[in-house]
């Protein structure tokens, strides 16, 4: 459907049109002022170079279109009494959203020094993209925002995440046409196949086609409208087009488009909620075509600007030095007729505010954009209900994630009425052994089903789509609006969201410094199908580097846990699901794993984060150990315990200490991470001068980086993944990377003073087993019997 701006029906009265236009002009004026001015906000005197900022930063091109959307959302919300949230996707659209927040009063309520008068307007202008001020994009500092606009591609998935389990919420999402070219955005169009019209809210995408990126045309603005329609209809949407450049005509068309979209959404929800309709809805999408830099300078220095890529950032770049640019800026600002928009004190006049809804219905004041105000404690059951019995270490085996799945099933069941917990992942819930959750909730699905399908449910809260970006975006939107969740993923492929988690961590770090932002539930990753048990899928599936990436980030916001067995995984899961304002990464295996600690022992060990397993070592407490075997991760822990067992048999006089690390940040100094150890703690655990052989789940240099400043660092030798992998046997993976028990024994002999000569025969036997292993697997295709059938006999 197209709304012809030349002959649009007169849905608005002339009075309504005048007030909408006044609001839009005021927002445009404030947007330009933020980019350029540091004084004389109301132009009460002729503009001088000293009134202009010395560094002109910001993005004008997208701002008038965003202002138009904000103005018309205000009208829609007020007229229909809606609860709404808007996700602003175009990059660096900050001037527009800040302007509208100031106009509606939510900005002043959040920052009382930025008053709704001339003095406050001056502060609003000066602080924008200014040292000590606010960013140029829609950042955490912006009231009403859940979306960090600095990186493109995630707006639509965030919007759908916000709408999930929010049946009374309309989430508008403005998508820039540059942003629409990104892979994450393209995949997120499919989110409408997962949106339940009964239990979820609605998402109204608004594709803003202003034609250009920073220096090039955009793809979707240059393809024929019929082709774009086919694309959007193929995605399952019904497009409504608004196209034009004459403000009055566009206002009328936009009002009609908004009303049409809202009517369709209401009808679709009514059909599902009251009429029992089960057909997948075809939701509306608005395609808005307006000029880039609309209402700005038409031409600068003889070159066209409005409606071109030159309007993207700062159209007049030399205002302080070029009198003609200064004259054009003043003419541009005065074209909005600020004297009609603001009174002599600088306050917005009544006509400007006529379209704005009241209270929490304002887009800058909705509690859905400050999810910590809405979040409730998750009803977590006692862990003892799921704990595996451990009479002695290493006597039984369990699949840790399968045990965790039983806990998650009960969390799903306990939140069935509240609907504030979701499990997301790329097609891997059952593969990751979490399928017990299907006993409480199926997989969200609105598309067609076949008899062979399993666990698909129109109202399900398990979400699977083979797009890690979309999973991440859904969960971020869900958490930021006050709910809880867990992202389960193959370890190697969580790297796909490296950049997205960067942005979320930056968001969390910033919000910690904003007292008005209430803490939200943590973003929790469960990484399984990990590097050491991807022997069947091969090299492409073997990458433990996400932990390195996370530990590069803000220490106050990131946590990494490597539980070595089922009970420690339960303890860690309980902790991260209760936590707030963190990104928690939990790495745990799904294959059968020895049970080392009872539930009580697991809780104590996880609370410490790192500790001595006295039962595994051979030190007697009368002297320092001769060597420390450290480990972090399930497979490295097993290899260290197997090595300790070999040392007890082969070198019974050697005093061996075994230290297991669950919380990897414990290795950092206490001044560098809140979970870090003091030097006294670290030296007490690992000693200050004895050899430490550390078997680590991931890349070995991470452990060196974490512990580089410790007294005994030159005695630390780390074994881990060395980017050597293939399709092979499980034990061959550790052998290829020199993490196996036999290599660890050889390392001990090489590094404990005096052992190299005295224990040369032992070392030779270890090397011989490694050689026999290579021959055996090539002949039999399985691991050596003494490895495959190994058990702890300490």
TrEMBL record:
Transmembrane stretches, start-end: none
- Residue ranges of domain Xylulose 5-phosphate/Fructose 6-phosphate phosphoketolase N-terminal in the record: 12-373
Q: Which InterPro entries does the entry link to?
A: Phosphoketolase, THDP-binding, Transketo_C/PFOR_II, Xul5P/Fru6P_PKetolase, Xul5P/Fru6P_PKetolase_C, Xul5P/Fru6P_PKetolase_CS, Xul5P/Fru6P_PKetolase_N, Xul5P/Fru6P_PKetolase_ThDP_BS
Cofactor(s) needed by this chain: thiamine diphosphate
Signal sequence, start to end: none
| Pfam families in the record | XFP, XFP_C, XFP_N
User: What Enzyme Commission number(s) appear in the record?
Assistant: 4.1.2.-
Identify the residues that the record assigns to the Xylulose 5-phosphate/Fructose 6-phosphate phosphoketolase C-terminal domain, covering every copy: 590-792
Q: What keywords are assigned to this protein? A: Lyase, Thiamine pyrophosphate
Domain of life of the source? Bacteria
Query: Family assignment?
Result: Belongs to the XFP family.
Q: What is this protein called?
A: Probable phosphoketolase
Species of provenance: Streptomyces incarnatus
């Amino acid at each position: 459907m197209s709304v012809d701006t030349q002959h649009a029906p007169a849905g608005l009265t002339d009075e309504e049109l005048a007030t909408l236009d006044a609001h839009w002009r005021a927002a445009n004026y404030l947007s330009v002022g933020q980019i350029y001015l540091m004084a004389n906000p109301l132009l009460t005197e002729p503009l001088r170079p000293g009134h202009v900022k010395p560094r002109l930063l910001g993005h004008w091109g997208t701002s008038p279109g965003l202002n138009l959307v904000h103005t018309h959302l205000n009208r829609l919300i007020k007229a229909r009494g809606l609860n709404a949230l808007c996700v602003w996707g175009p990059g660096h659209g900050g001037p527009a959203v800040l302007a509208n927040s100031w106009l509606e009063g939510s900005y002043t309520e959040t920052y009382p020094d930025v008053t709704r008068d001339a003095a406050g307007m001056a502060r609003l202008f000066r602080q924008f993209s200014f040292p000590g001020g606010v960013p140029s994009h829609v950042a955490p500092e912006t009231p009403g925002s859940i979306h960090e606009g600095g990186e493109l591609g995630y707006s639509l998935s965030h919007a759908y995440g916000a709408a999930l389990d929010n049946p009374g919420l309309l989430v508008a999402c403005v998508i820039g046409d540059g942003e629409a070219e990104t892979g994450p955005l393209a995949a997120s169009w499919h989110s409408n196949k997962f949106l339940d019209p009964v239990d979820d809210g609605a998402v109204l995408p608004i594709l803003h086609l202003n034609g250009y990126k920073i220096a090039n045309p955009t793809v979707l603005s240059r393809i024929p409208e019929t082709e774009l329609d086919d694309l959007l209809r193929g995605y399952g949407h019904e497009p409504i087009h608004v196209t034009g450049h004459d403000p009055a005509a566009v206002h009328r068309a936009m009002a009609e488009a908004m009303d049409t979209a809202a009517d369709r959404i209401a009808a679709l929800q009514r059909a599902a909620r009251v009429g029992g309709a089960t057909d997948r809805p075809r939701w509306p999408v608005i395609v808005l075509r307006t000029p880039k830099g609309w209402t700005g300078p038409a031409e600068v220095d003889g070159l066209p600007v409005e409606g071109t890529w030159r309007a993207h950032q700062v159209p007049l770049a030399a205002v302080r030095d070029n009198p003609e640019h200064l004259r054009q800026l003043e003419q541009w600002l005065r074209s909005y007729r600020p004297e009609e928009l603001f009174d002599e004190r600088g306050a917005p006049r009544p006509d400007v505010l006529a379209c704005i809804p009241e209270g929490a219905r304002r887009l800058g004041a909705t509690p859905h954009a400050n999810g910590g105000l809405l979040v409730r404690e998750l009803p977590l059951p006692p862990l003892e209900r799921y704990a595996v019995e451990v009479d002695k270490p290493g006597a039984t085996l369990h699949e840790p994630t399968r045990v965790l799945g039983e806990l998650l099933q009960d969390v799903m069941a306990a939140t069935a009425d509240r609907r504030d917990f979701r499990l997301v992942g790329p097609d891997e819930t059952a593969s990751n052994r979490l399928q017990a959750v299907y006993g409480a909730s199926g997989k969200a699905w609105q598309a067609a089903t076949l008899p062979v399908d399993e666990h698909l449910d129109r109202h399900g809260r398990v979400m699977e789509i083979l797009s890690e970006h979309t999973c991440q975006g859904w969960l971020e939107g869900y958490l930021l609006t006050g709910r809880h969740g867990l992202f389960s993923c193959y370890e190697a492929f969580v790297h796909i969201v490296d950049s997205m988690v960067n942005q979320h961590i930056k968001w969390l770090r910033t919000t910690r410094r904003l007292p008005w932002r209430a803490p939200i539930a943590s973003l929790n990753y469960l990484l399984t199908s990990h590097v050491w048990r991807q022997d069947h899928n091969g090299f492409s599936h073997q990458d433990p580097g996400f932990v390195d990436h996370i530990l590069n980030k803000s220490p106050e916001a990131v946590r990494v846990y490597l539980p070595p067995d089922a009970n420690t995984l339960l303890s860690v899961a309980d902790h991260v699901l209760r936590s707030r304002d963190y990104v928690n990464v939990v790495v745990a295996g799904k294959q059968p794993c020895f049970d080392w600690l009872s539930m009580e022992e697991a809780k104590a060990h996880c609370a410490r984060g790192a500790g001595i397993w006295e039962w595994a070592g051979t030190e007697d407490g009368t002297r320092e150990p001769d060597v420390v075997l450290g480990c972090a991760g399930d497979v490295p822990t097993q290899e260290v315990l197997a090595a300790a067992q070999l040392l007890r048999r082969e070198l019974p006089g050697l005093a061996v200490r075994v230290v297991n690390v669950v919380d990897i940040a414990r290795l950092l100094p206490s001044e560098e991470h809140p979970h870090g150890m003091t030097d006294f703690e670290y030296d007490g655990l690992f000693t200050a001068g004895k050899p430490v052989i550390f078997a680590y789940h991931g890349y070995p240099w991470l452990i060196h980086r974490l512990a580089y400043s410790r007294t005994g660092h030159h005695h630390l030798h780390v074994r881990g993944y060395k980017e050597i992998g293939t399709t092979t046997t499980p034990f061959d993976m550790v052998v290829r990377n020199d993490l196996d028990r036999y290599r660890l024994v050889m390392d001990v002999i090489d590094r404990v003073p005096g052992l190299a000569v005295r224990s040369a025969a032992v070392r030779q036997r270890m090397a011989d087993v490694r050689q026999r292993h290579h021959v055996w697997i090539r002949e039999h295709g399985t691991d050596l019997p003494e490895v495959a059938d190994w058990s702890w006999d300490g």
